[in-house]
Amino acid sequence: MTGSFDNWSKTTYRLRHEANGYFGGNILIAKTGDEYRFYLKTPFGNFLRNDPYAKAMTHSLGNSIVQDQNFDWGNDERFKIANWNELVIYELHIGTFNRKQKDRPGDLYSTTEKLDYLKDLGINAVELMPVTEFPGDLSWGYNPAHPFAVESHYGGAIALKRFIKAAHEKGIAVLIDVVYNHFGPSDLDLWQFDGWSQNKGGGIYFYNDRRAQTPWGHTRPDYGRPEVRQFLRDNALMWLEEFHADGLRLDMTAYIRNIYADGNAQNDIPEGHAAMKWMNQELNQRHPHKIVIAEDMHQLDYVTEQTTRGGLGFDSQWDAKFVHNIRAILIQPHDEHRNLLVAEQAILHKYNNDAFRRVIYTESHDEVANGKARLPEDISPGKADSWFSKKKAALGMIIVMTAPGIPMIFQGQPILEDKWFCDTDPLDWNRLIEFKGNVKLYQDLIRLRRNWYNHTKGLCGHHTQTLYLNQQQGVLAYHRWENGGKQDSTVIVLNFKHQTHQQITIKFPMTGTWQTRFNSDSKIYDSAYTNFGVTHAITNAEGWANLSVAPYSGLILSLD
User: Fold this and answer.
1) 440 near 324, Cβ under 8 Å?
2) Does 21 have pLDDT greater than 80?
3) Which residues pair with 81 in a beta bridge?
């Protein structure tokens, strides 16, 4: 081992060989802030390598830094993530969320300044796109160079701990994206770490055959090696334990279990399946209240099935069936071609017969980047702030907040961000004032989703039933409930047409006076709206009641 503490001598300190290929030692002279590397003498050559477990780096091509692990968490251990049926997630990218200088990415300190905005919005969980050290100054983060080090431009480990502590103080859980399907591919010290490799592959940390292939470089970790599995498991536990994160989201798990994520059994990676099961078993055992989410996107119950039943053991998964179908319906320019049966299927879909085994959304970093537009821009290209765009995008958010699942929004949605996501383009916070009505719409929906007012508990419930579907009218209504009855049963009515409906007769799940708790045509959301729609619906003895609803609008009602 060599470093600034011994003037980079290659002979002063030698690490001792331990079991299973590990080396270790205590360098008492080393102090916080010292830089260091490992000096490897191997049959394949001599190498200066960074510590694979380094908690801090000078930069992605720099040196490992000795990190002080002490941090005053105060009473943070008392914080617990909300029950999963009450979660509302806000996905954000540290580099662009609150950039203060044009020539520098945003960091964890500037993001912390916006926690009051997030709390006021009503969300109770943020999902951070990857924060590990990556090449250069700007990145989405899905090209990890040093998986255990927090990106230096974001402020490093102390900044992340301060952010998480501050978020917890405001009642906001923190989930962290991790990338285990590939590393790098650039600025990657793990590559041919000790000089050994086969087929010009990556050496001991990677597959050295066709299993190395991924869309992001031939850098898939070798899940068959116990040391590599331990490396990934240790990384996951670090975020949950050392950083007090409340959950993880694993990037593209389909590429952990299959070479091409194509469903072809000949391309399966059995040890990738086993690695995820093994890791999830331990995470669930040690931290049962924390959530581990898969981005698999293949609509498989197996992903969120319990490991004891042969599944991968994830707590929830991003639902491709929901986002792709709902976006397609909203983007469709012709009302007569909008298929409400597809919308119904997307709303009712479940994994493992559990409403909260899926995360639902209309925008994520994947859906609004690489040439794919924000939803309002997709609805009316060049006119993202038009009446049509705002109306239809609001319909999408009503579905996100009222359909069974864990709702997620992407940074900028409440302020009607119209540009696609790019790591060089920060959010325009001037839009917070310009579109304050749209922000209010999000606030109201989130509060109803979380049952703030104790009259929409059904939106946190497991049960959903279609009450009304009329393709010609373009109207879909459904019932959400947990136990049913007053303050629980909630009815959602959606009008997918550019047509005012003066009278729609719907059979409600029970008799009584159903109060309108939300109307997306309210003028408080936009001065161009008309306040059209019922304020309440009184059923007859059989439960039938008449409703009126504005074009491209939605109503949320519950029993008085």
Assistant:
1) no
2) no
3) none
